[in-house]
Specification:
The complex is a heterodimer of chains A (363) and B (281). Chain A has helices at residues 42-50, 92-102, 107-121, 136-149, 166-183, 194-200, 218-223, 228-233; strands at residues 4-13, 16-26, 31-35, 57-62, 65-66, 77-80, 154-158, 186-191, 203-208, 211-216, 240-247, 250-253, 258-260, 273-280, 285-287, 293-302, 306-313, 326-331, 341-346, 352-354. Chain A has 363 residues and is of the alpha+beta class. In chain A, α2 (92-102) runs parallel beside α4. The radius of gyration of chain A is 24 Å and the shape is elongated. Chain B is built from 13 helices and no strands. The radius of gyration of chain B is 24 Å and the shape is globular. Chain B has 281 residues and is mainly α. Chain B has helices at 6-34, 53-62, 73-104, 110-119, 129-138, 145-149, 156-167, 171-180, 184-195, 197-212, 216-221, 230-238, 247-277. The chains are: A alpha+beta (363), B mainly alpha (281). Chain A binds chain B through residues 50-52, 71-73, 77-79, 81-83, 85-89, 98-99, 102-103, 146, 150, and chain B through 170, 172-173, 175-182, 186, 190-191, 194-195, 197, 280-281.
Chain lengths: 363, 281
């Protein structure tokens, strides 16, 4: 059990800066998810914590120990890889216990731990199988078993579910959650899937081009995104962002519609005038015959439980940008046709306002 | 593969049998020749068996050819066996460690080392045979197993094959092993060696036959009859001054000389084929 601290981590690959000035602390026993688009440095950050990559500068602490220059084996971590990295010539039991064997843990203890892990993961009958005789989900479990038996102070997961099909992924996600509740070992999990991030994390770290965009609880990240990037990255479909103007406490859309009281409670616009970016999630736009926002429906996607309507804003102002698309989530029964003009209201207190210059949340 | 039926099938078998007959005919002639006494073979090539088969084999195995020094063939065969095994195992041991170093360690001049090893591919034994002989002679390697084995023990081909094979082992396996706490030596023994098992078997077959069939080098490096190998020994038996070659005995030696490579191929056939086609990953 230990917390993990990164202090001013820089990582450069042949003059390419992959991580710059990473500072964060993962509390003891928490589940932290690093998320971001591909190439944002999340896997590199994980590999630096694992010790598979040397950091260019900065230091890493696990618990009270400075592990910056330690070998992976001395850091007391265990890692689950995306492609599982099981030893193909060893059976499940040997795969799970190899790390213990190398460390000279006696055979009886190895057996006890392996059986315990197998029971926990539902691998009981599979201990003598070879990896090639296992399904993807079973291999995934073996990879986790290998991490668990080591009883490390930190688990590292590198996109462990991305090779599984959608159903299995949901199932494994829940199992992972359960496992974490049981073991309560500090875990750092890398994914590009924001659903995984939202459902698994106690803390989410959103990375972009090697720096931290936001670090907070899933609610923080979803309900109070720190920047336009986070707002659009988290949540599906991504948040609608439209150009608007602030006028005292109100927001005026490009077509002249005046909205009052839509912005979230932590945003104080009084005294602010001029251009802003207004962000509204698709579920915060409500179908309402008396609404003051008018949009033209372009494409309708029926998902069963609800319907996504891709709309263009319209109004008397010809300057409204044609390419600005607004996505509205409608209840299952409401199915407007393409070309319809519908009216919407924005839910009070759910709008996000960003500065168009810095792209950061206005507070 | 398309399975042929009827006439097509018969035709394919006919072609196959014809090919097999062509390959096997010289062996048949050798076997027939072995079964006659030596005077029958002067000036004629019998096509059916005589009654001396067992006697000729016993003669070569126990006494050898009197005129060619009288070394029993089993001595030559054991020399050949020691040489072939030494070359095959030595080549494997050296190239697998060399390839491991080149693939898994970052050291200055790594690429240069690989290039140097690779360049030696372009230099067959024959090209460097005079200097090699000089070195072997200075080291007192003449008429010794070391002399038969050591000069042939490095293999650029095998190093190259192992390097290519190691490069197909996923990087994550190495990383998983590092996190599991395995050092370079443990990773080599516990992961790399078992994973290259089939490749090693295939290489062993090829290299054993290569070693067994060495002709020129044993001819140079051995002077005493007791160090002769079978393959070069046969040649000595044919070229005896002022004597008629005893073809019945020579053919017996030739057949015996073919036996060990045949056994190696048959014994390791399954692994050999797997090593050539399968990637167990």
């Amino acid at each position: 059990m230990a917390n993990v601290r990164l202090c001013d981590i820089d990582k450069t690959f042949n003059k390419n800066k992959v991580l710059s000035g990473l500072n964060l602390e993962v509390p003891d026993g928490s589940f932290m998810v690093m998320v971001g688009p591909s190439g944002c440095g999340k896997s590199t950050a994980l590999r630096c914590i694992a010790g598979l990559e040397e950091v260019t500068s900065g230091s890493i602490y696990i618990g009270d120990r400075d592990v910056t220059h330690m070998e992976p084996k001395d850091r007391n971590i265990a890692m689950v890889f995306q492609n599982y990295a099981l030893y193909p010539h060893m059976n499940v039991y040997d795969n799970i216990t190899y790390g213990l064997k190398v460390r000279g843990i006696p055979a009886e203890e190895r057996k006890r731990r392996a059986e315990e892990a197998a029971k926990l993961l539902g691998l009981d009958g599979l201990l003598t199988r070879m990896p090639r005789q296992l399904s993807g989900g079973q291999r995934q479990r073996v990879a986790m078993g290998r991490a668990i038996v080591r009883e490390p102070s930190v688990f590292l997961f590198d996109e462990p579910l991305s090779n599984l099909d959608a159903n299995l992924r949901n199932q494994m996600r829940i199992e992972l959650r359960r496992l974490h509740q049981r073991l309560a070992t500090t875990s750092i999990y890398v994914t590009h899937d924001q659903v995984e991030a939202m459902t698994l994390a106690e803390k989410i770290l959103v990375l972009r081009a090697g720096h931290i965009e936001q670090y907070g609880t899933p609610d923080d990240v979803y309900l109070r995104p720190a920047s336009v990037f986070v707002a659009q990255f988290m949540g599906s479909p991504s948040m609608n962002i439209v150009h608007a103007t602030a006028d005292g406490g109100d927001i005026i859309l490009a077509d002249g519609t005046r909205l009052s009281g839509v912005q979230a409670k932590d945003i104080n616009l009084s005294g602010r005038k001029g251009d802003v970016l207004l962000g509204l999630r698709s579920e915060d736009l409500l179908f309402d015959p008396d609404g003051n926002i008018r949009v033209t429906v372009d494409i309708v996607e029926a998902l069963g439980s609800d319907t996504l309507a891709y709309c263009h804003p319209m109004g008397k102002d010809a300057a409204v940008k044609k390419d600005e698309t607004i996505i509205v989530r409608l209840q299952g029964a409401q199915r407007p046709a393409s070309g319809d003009v519908i009216r919407l209201t924005a839910r009070q207190g759910h709008g996000h306002v960003f500065d168009p210059e810095t792209q950061l949340r206005c507070l | 593969m398309v399975e042929k039926k009827g006439l097509g099938r018969a035709l394919s078998h006919a072609v196959l049998l014809f090919g097999a007959a062509i390959v096997l005919f010289p062996l048949y002639v050798a076997l027939v020749a072995t079964s006659h006494s030596y005077d029958v073979l002067i000036g004629s090539t019998p096509l059916w068996f005589g009654g001396e088969l067992i006697k000729n084999f016993t003669t070569v195995l126990t006494q050898g050819l009197k005129a060619a020094g009288g070394i029993p063939v089993w001595v030559m065969m054991s020399n050949s066996l020691i040489m072939a095994l030494g070359i095959a195992l030595g080549k494997i041991a050296i190239s697998i460690t060399a390839a491991y170093a080149i693939v898994y360690f970052r050291f200055p001049g790594r690429e240069l080392c690989f290039v140097l090893i690779f360049i030696t591919l372009m230099m067959p034994v024959e090209v460097r045979i005079v200097p090699t002989f000089q070195v072997a002679a200075n080291l007192n390697f003449i008429d010794s197993y070391a002399g038969l084995i050591l000069p042939l023990i490095a293999s650029a081909t095998a190093t190259f094959l192992y390097r290519q094979m190691f490069m197909t082992i996923p990087q994550e396996l190495l990383e998983a092993a590092r996190i599991d706490g395995a050092g370079p030596w443990r990773f080599f023994v516990d992961v790399v060696l078992p994973l290259s098992r089939t490749n090693t078997a295939a290489l062993f077959v090829v290299l054993f036959i290569y070693g067994w069939n060495q002709y020129l080098w044993p001819l140079l490096v051995t002077n005493q009859e007791s160090m002769y190998t079978v393959v070069m020994g046969i040649q000595r038996m044919v070229n005896i001054p002022d004597a008629v070659p005893e073809w019945n005995l020579i053919m017996a030696v030739a057949l015996l000389g073919m036996l060990p490579p045949l056994l190696v191929v048959l014994g390791m056939q399954k692994l050999f084929v797997r090593g050539l086609v399968e990637t167990e990953k």
